[in-house]
Automatic annotation (TrEMBL):
Keywords from the UniProt entry: Carbohydrate metabolism, Cytoplasm, Isomerase, Metal-binding
Biological process, per Gene Ontology: carbohydrate metabolic process
Protein name, UniProt field: Xylose isomerase
Species whose genome carries this gene: Saccharibacillus brassicae
Pfam hit, one: AP_endonuc_2
GO molecular function: metal ion binding; xylose isomerase activity
Entry coiled-coil feature ranges: none
């Protein structure tokens, strides 16, 4: 299994690893993240993580830490406050497309496979604020232009229903699959973020099944939360059964991609927090193995809420 987590989490509880007055670079954060037991990969934000260090410096630090780079995630700053691929200022829209292409090139240069696109600002806050059809068409054409220029690289779309916009343009699994289908290229897929799915009141395992049946499952962002906000707390801490079901479907569809913990430890030691997430994932995976895929398949076929609760109880008491 490939495990990764948020590099920026390693700015937290700074004094446990760095002198309090040290200004942290990406290379410093890589040094700290490399102390996590069980971590295999690093994911970097573009352009954010390349402001103080060059791609070569980052590459060297990651190799020196005995880790690999899985990919790059786009982080659009306030230049794009009024939209990335749907910005009505043509110059800003072109810049969003150009920066995305740069991110893919950096990903390629660093030996990563997947560039994840989250469009924070493509959405709306008011009625009559957005021409929906035009915005949709602009998003399809931008993604098509980007993905067709790099056919050997994975481009993964991460949806989120709202925040920072009141409504995202593409905010759920169904719309994301429609978008990807309209883009019509084999190297475009979907990243499922557990909190984002909860915010949309999706059942996460169902979203796995829908993306997998279209062969578009490209990335996992795992965490947990209380549904209304992107809490980013530890895996399984609130929705344990839904996390177990999610991992069951990941196994059922032979998901071999990156398991990335998109959590925001602040009051926890981020090293211990990440190790705990890895342990929880492995423990739930082992519980499924022990129960047997066939036995769970049988449980699903019975469609019995009572038997599902007994399964939970048996797992606790085992
Ligand atoms: Mn995420």
């Amino acid at each position: 299994m490939m495990f990764s987590t948020r590099l920026n989490s390693f700015k937290a509880q700074k004094g446990l690893f760095f002198p309090e007055d040290q200004e942290l670079t990406t290379v410093d954060l890589i040094r700290r993240i490399s102390t996590v037991n069980g971590l295999t990969h690093i994911e970097l934000n573009y352009p954010e993580h390349f402001k103080k260090n060059t791609p070569d410096e980052v590459k060297e630090a990651v190799a020196g830490a005995g880790l690999e780079i899985s990919g790059i995630a786009l982080r659009f700053d306030d230049t794009y406050l009024n939209g990335e691929f749907t910005n009505s200022n043509e110059e800003i829209r072109s810049q969003a497309i150009r920066v995305t292409k740069e991110a893919i090139e950096v990903c390629q240069q660093l030996g990563g496979t997947t560039t994840t696109i989250w469009l924070a600002n493509d959405g709306f806050d008011y009625s009559f604020q957005l021409d929906y059809e035009q915005a949709w068409n602009q998003t399809v054409s931008a993604l098509r232009e980007i993905a067709s220029a790099y056919p050997s690289m994975n481009i993964s779309f991460e949806y989120k229903p709202y925040e920072p916009r009141s409504f995202s343009l593409v905010g759920d699994i169904g719309l994301s699959l429609l978008l990807v289908e309209e883009v019509g290229l084999p190297n475009v897929g979907i990243t499922l973020d557990f909190c984002h799915m909860l915010m949309k009141k999706e059942n996460p395992a169902y979203s796995v099944a829908l993306a997998a049946r279209k062969n578009r499952l490209m990335g996992f962002h795992l965490n947990d939360g209380y549904k209304d906000a992107d809490d980013g707390i530890m895996l399984g801490s609130v929705h344990l059964m839904q996390t177990l079901e999610f991992i069951y479907y990941a196994k059922k569809y032979n998901y071999t991609g990156l398991i990335y913990f998109d959590t925001f430890p602040k009051r926890e030691d981020p090293v211990a927090e990440c190790e705990q997430n890895i342990r929880i994932y492995q423990a739930l995976d082992a519980l499924i193995e022990k129960t047997g895929m066939d036995a769970i398949e049988q449980l699903i076929r019975e469609k019995s809420g009572v038997k599902v609760q007994q399964f939970l109880l048996d797992a606790f008491l085992a």
